[in-house]
């Protein structure tokens, strides 16, 4: 009973945020520039939360998330621009294609561990990018024209679904299995958890939501190009998760919102932005290797009365 | 006959990969860290060589030595500042720090000089050698020569000197080596110094061969050198050389067949196949993980 109350509480807060922003947009109080920033923020939150499931919850170090973003972007763009399908169908198609790619990538590479997995996923993402460079149907290196269809509503619904499903997954039996894999894979295996199954499942779900983000990303600009999905993009997403805290969903969300805000203002100075990013990354890792929030959620910080006990 | 020419080109490219891969494999062998910044040390080496030759009118050999020495110093600084604290941290933290250091080096260079490419000065007249009807660029031969000398030198250091013995001991078991009175910190620093010096040398000869350098040039050769290291069996020095050469030849052949756009993909496909089929690499023994 109590849990569902909390859930409806969050749902109402989300609805209020949505209505307020939508009202501001309808009354013309938010100009195109800020609308764009809002949508970018939503895309980054989706990406951060989906990667959080893979890295933060399951402990599988994937640095090829931009590859799934690219698949979502391109497949959805093909559906709207070439096949003339409505946008929601395109989003779903992009997400499913990304999930399929996640399965294809995940099943062989999740037998690897640690650094090898990281480098293999990076390799897969690069292969995906090079495929898009070489396929003339989607415009090759020059990129593909896409109409502007993403709105605040789509972006917000995407974020809401992503957060609800991933947080529910994390708190379920399956999520706890994933956390046990993060903590100690060999022990989890010994306890009878099918580690490969859960790793691939987490990977596929993560890719699915990266695909949704990709679809919204593609339809937020007028053109998509393969260069936008290189490993720098993967590192950008990684930075969101790491900074927020490896294992903290609210941390990922806050970091995504905060960093989008900062990088929008630093857009004019890309070099400075990257220097600041990399310095922050190094300092956080040196002095707080679990990220700013660690595995805590932001709500844990307010539960003053519930301290004590052995709850972690 | 054109094939032989292509293979010679491939071997020259491969020897550059091999020089970078040696640094990767040595560092990985000793502290189990993928040093993403290694490719950027390679880039710094190329730029130091460029300044030495073009601005300060140095000859090739002094410029090469200067690039190697400065890169060795940079490598040790990176290790001392960024990686030393993380020896006992999680692998993810170490890898993310390495990515951070890599980005920091790249964008600091861009900040100071812009992202525009630089044309490397020509120090050799372009000439070709005619061997039994095969035209071979003298630059390829020269690069191959420098690489072979450096690799022989490395073999000598690792197998015949005291510091080489210490390196082998630490990579085998750091704690046991410490108990035996080996200064582990200094040994790790020496490994970084040697690896970075090789990467710096690779940067200079890359600049001479391709005549075009830029601040982000280290990323792709860096990743490919890592692929080469994995291909040969990570932590194994002859493996890195062989892996680099194989990768260079494969890439040149893929280009020669008319798939030059797929060249970069070829390296990653090889990587994934190797990781899935034979994770220990060509030269590696399959060791069971101890639980």
From TrEMBL, chain A:
Intracellular or extracellular location(s): Cell membrane
Name of protein: Branched-chain amino acid ABC transporter permease
Entry-linked Pfam families: BPD_transp_2
TM annotation in the entry: 7-30, 36-55, 62-81, 87-107, 114-132, 152-170, 197-217, 237-262, 274-294
The species this protein was found in: Lysinibacillus louembei
Record key words, sorted: Cell membrane, Membrane, Transmembrane, Transmembrane helix
Main localization, broad class: membrane
Lineage top rank: taxon: Bacteria
PANTHER family the UniProt entry points to: HIGH-AFFINITY BRANCHED-CHAIN AMINO ACID TRANSPORT PROTEIN BRAE, HIGH-AFFINITY BRANCHED-CHAIN AMINO ACID TRANSPORT SYSTEM PERMEASE
Bilayer topology: Multi-pass membrane protein
UniProtKB/TrEMBL annotation, chain B:
Topology in the lipid bilayer: Multi-pass membrane protein
A Pfam family: BPD_transp_2
KW Zinc (keyword) present: no
CDD domains: TM_PBP1_LivH_like
Keywords of this entry: Amino-acid transport, Cell inner membrane, Cell membrane, Membrane, Transmembrane, Transmembrane helix, Transport
Protein name: Branched-chain amino acid ABC transporter permease
Stated family: Belongs to the binding-protein-dependent transport system permease family. LivHM subfamily.
PANTHER family, per the entry: BRANCHED-CHAIN AMINO ACID TRANSPORT SYSTEM PERMEASE PROTEIN LIVH, HIGH-AFFINITY BRANCHED-CHAIN AMINO ACID TRANSPORT SYSTEM PERMEASE PROTEIN LIVH
Transmembrane segments: 6-26, 33-54, 60-78, 90-112, 140-158, 188-210, 265-284
Lineage, top ranks: Bacteria, Bacillati, Bacillota, Bacilli, Bacillales
Chief location of this protein within or outside the cell: membrane
Domain of life of the native organism: Bacteria
Localization: Cell membrane
InterPro entries: ABC_BtuC-like, ABC_transp_permease, BCAA_transport_permease
